[in-house]
Design a protein that fits this description.
The complex is a heterodimer of chains A (about 290) and B (about 325). Chain A has one domain (about 5-285): 3-Layer(aba) Sandwich (Rossmann fold). In chain A, about 40% of the residues lie in helices and about 10% in strands. Chain A contains ten helices and five strands; from the N terminus they run H-H-H-E-H-H-E-H-E-H-H-E-H-E-H. A five-stranded parallel beta sheet of chain A has the order 1-2-3-5-4, sandwiched between helices. Chain B has about 325 residues and is an alpha/beta fold. Chain B folds into two domains: about 15-180, Rossmann fold; about 195-320, Rossmann fold (3-Layer(aba) Sandwich), CATH 3.40.50. Chain B has a seven-stranded mixed beta sheet, sandwiched between helices. Chain B has a five-stranded mixed beta sheet with strand order 9-11-10-13-14, with helices on both faces. A two-stranded antiparallel ribbon of chain B has the order 1-8. Chain B is globular. The model of chain B has no long low-confidence stretch (mean pLDDT about 95). Classes of the chains: A alpha/beta (about 290), B alpha/beta (about 325). The interface between A and B is medium-sized, with 37 and 30 residues.
Chain lengths: ~290, ~325
């Protein structure tokens, strides 16, 4: 039975939550094992986004077929914060787009698993991201394509909060409003930390809810580590008919690992062997792979 | 100066000139009728990109992102992902320069099936000045892996390139002028990617050019013929992938190559030709274009003359190349 089939069989929301929580922690440990292996990566954001990714992919929010990754009617997911590729790749492998075994090659010479995702190398990747502010315009185009073709696919895009300092996001937001793209769902990983410092000490992002609201989105703020809240929120899109949706997911950078939580240095910190062992104990996962 | 074509034919009237944008717009409408995947994205460029009729006929396949080129190129990638064939139509200066990282990542690196129709390229915006000139676009676009770069010579070739583009796999940058230009190609012309078009055979010297300068190169050939020189003229409309064999043949069978382009001499068509020759068959060259300067104020026609991008300019460069300039 596939993982997502297992999820479907869980009746009780408590069970679903526990199951997603375990899967998310597996993604966390897998990502940390990858960044440890590569001695490169963006561990902090991997850990803050793991619950969102687990809910979307393993909670069966996204209508996908790993057997046929380019199935035309699929929902699109754009990982705009492409630097959190370790968590993203772990999620795709977990969902069955490629083998978990492949995760071991993260950033190795000639690996399919680039530091940042490449759709022409890896099944399940929709967009080549890495430079920030690219994902949302691409997602708007995908949503427009669904309109033009009378298709019902939805487009989910995960953006970082610091990423929103790139002006291209707001160009895209205006376009989404103009075209009433209620098949577009923006999720902001609001972990409040960017590479060098806290967002609010760099370029203030607040009032973030008001900003998205002013740009014509139906906005909901929620706990980005509460799987049930995420699951219910993503299951009820669009938040408002005729409007694009925006979820501000309040998260903690480095979530789940005591030494990394809420520390700017862990934006691109990578764990030592000892730290990886501590993380494993704290996350309660036997081993990633 | 009276056109040499007129001198030759004895016609009393100036030949008709065409705006390539009309040909591109008409071709797009025809393509949209044939293929439901064809769609257009503009950046407020409804009139400058001549898209009023397309919008009226195909409103559901028409997107105006407003004055927002970064979003425009990203939207193109997303539309292609969703199975559409988007044509991004706007002023070349903004589409390339303003959105260069999106062109690199979202189109070239992603191998997205998107077509950029860069309007009013080169110095076509004349008096509006260097902010609106797009003299850098060829150098910028041709270095990007996976990105095909085409500069049509006239309205006939523009329409042919548009028709070709529908079936091309991967991103294309098509540079479309707004300077009215005489027709250089016959109406039965068929575009072939990566193949230079030999518009005139010659044995003394080869002029390689493209875009609105092609007819000027034909005029230069006539002027040189008056001086007993036999000139080959190659329309190198595809800059990438470039026709290496045509360039090598020119180097082998004529005494040298003059290139001319409506843009910076560095990194453009001349640079592309020089790269081929330097590595495979060194030959004397002259590269006509803007030599590391922005253009002064003046009409497009004035600026082309100012930078010797004229029949006489090409003639003089050719004579200089073979040591016969008086």
């Amino acid at each position: 039975m596939s993982l997502e089939e297992k999820f479907e069989k869980l009746d009780d929301s408590k069970d679903k939550e526990q199951w997603l929580s375990r899967r998310a922690n597996w993604i966390r440990l897998s990502a940390m094992t990858m960044t440890h292996h590569a001695k490169l990566g963006h561990t902090g954001g991997d850990l803050s986004s793991a619950d969102i990714l687990a809910t979307l992919y393993l909670g069966r929010i996204l209508n996908l077929n790993p057997e046929e990754p380019r199935w035309e009617q699929r929902d699109r997911f754009v990982m705009s914060k492409g630097h959190c590729s370790a968590a993203f790749y772990s999620t795709l492998a977990s969902r069955g787009f490629f083998s978990v075994e492949q995760l071991k090659t993260f950033m190795d010479p000639l690996s399919m698993l680039n530091g940042h995702p490449d759709r022409n190398k890896l099944p399940g990747v929709e967009a080549n991201t890495g430079p920030l502010g690219h994902g949302l315009p691409i997602a708007v185009g995908m949503a427009l394509a669904a309109r033009m073709r009378n298709e019902t696919w939805r487009v989910f895009v995960l953006v970082g909060d610091g990423e929103l300092q790139e002006g291209s996001n707001w160009e895209a937001a205006m376009c989404a409003q103009q075209y009433d793209l209620d098949n577009l769902i923006v999720i902001v990983d609001r972990n409040r930390i960017q590479q060098g410092d806290f967002t609010e000490s760099t370029i203030r992002m607040e009032p973030l809810v008001d900003r998205w609201t002013a740009f014509g989105f139906a906005v909901k703020e929620l706990d980005g580590h509460d799987h049930l809240a995420l699951y219910q929120a993503f299951s009820s899109v669009p938040l408002e008919k005729g409007k694009p949706s925006c979820f501000i997911a309040r998260t903690i950078k480095g979530r789940g690992v005591s030494f990394a939580e809420n520390k700017p240095a862990w934006h691109h910190g990578v764990p030592t062997r000892e730290q990886l062992e501590i993380a494993q104990r704290e996350l309660g996962v036997e081993a990633a792979w | 100066m009276v056109s040499p074509v007129i001198l030759e034919t004895g016609e009393s009237q100036e030949p008709q000139r065409f705006d390539c944008r009309d040909a591109y717009a008409k071709a797009l409408e025809q393509m949209a009728e044939q293929d439901a995947r064809v769609c257009v994205v503009i950046n407020d460029s409804l009139s400058s990109a001549k898209m009023k009729d397309f919008k009226a006929k195909y409103p559901s396949r028409f997107v105006n992102v407003g004055i927002a080129e970064q979003n425009m190129v990203g939207v193109g990638n997303g539309l292609a992902n969703g199975g559409m064939i988007p044509y991004l139509c706007g002023a070349s200066c903004f589409l390339t320069a303003r959105a260069m990282e999106q062109v690199k990542v979202d189109l070239a690196y992603s191998k997205a099936n998107v077509r950029i129709c860069g309007m009013s390229s080169g110095m076509a915006y004349g008096q509006l000045g260097p902010t609106h000139h797009s003299i850098e676009d060829i150098a910028w676009t041709r270095i990007l892996p996976n990105l095909t770069v085409i500069v049509p010579a006239d309205d006939v070739e523009t329409a042919a390139v548009m028709r070709y583009s529908l079936h091309h796999d991967g991103p294309i940058f098509i540079r479309i002028s707004r300077i009215p230009v005489r027709r250089a190609l016959g109406e039965d012309y068929e575009f072939r990617l990566g193949r230079a078009v030999k518009l005139r055979e010659g044995t003394d010297i080869t002029i390689i050019t493209n875009g609105v300068l092609v007819v000027r190169a034909l005029d230069a050939a006539l002027l040189l013929e008056e001086q007993g020189k036999s000139v080959r003229v190659l329309n190198m409309s595809t800059i990438k992938p470039i026709d290496e064999e045509a360039i090598l043949e020119a180097a082998r069978t004529t005494r040298g190559v003059v290139t001319a382009e409506e843009g910076l001499a560095a990194g453009g068509l001349g640079g592309a030709v020089a790269e081929v020759l330097a590595l495979r068959h060194p030959a004397p060259m002259r590269i006509l274009g803007l030599q590391d300067v922005f253009a002064p104020t003046g009409s497009a026609e004035f600026l082309l003359e100012h930078f010797n991008l004229t029949a006489t300019g090409m003639r003089d460069a050719a004579l200089d190349l073979i040591g016969e300039r008086k």
